[in-house]
Amino acid sequence: MAASGVNLKVLRYSALGAGVLYGLYHQRSLNTQFKMNDLTRKYQAEESLIATAKAEYTKKTMPGESKTAGGDVISDPNDPKFDLEAYLTMKMADEAK
Fold first, then answer.
1. Is the dihedral of CA 11, 25, 27, 30 positive or negative?
2. From CA 18, how far away is CA 45, in angstroms rounded?
3. Start-to-end C-alpha separation, the chain
4. What is the reported pTM?
């Protein structure tokens, strides 16, 4: 009878140990998943900030006198107000989109 009591205690402690080890493993995987999601979210936020900054910089650096009344860049090279830099900047911005 004493042997079955010992076996029962060994079985209980083995189950407890296995449960603790599984809990540690599961918690570790949850933490890793959370950290990866957090890094992804931060990276996407930085990407959107960079895209916004690029658009604002393009708007800022485009010369004012090279624009027509509608806000478009003059693309006719024979026009006296044609600005090559503004035209190329506009083309680069269009390609970036």
1. negative
2. 41
3. 79
4. 0.50
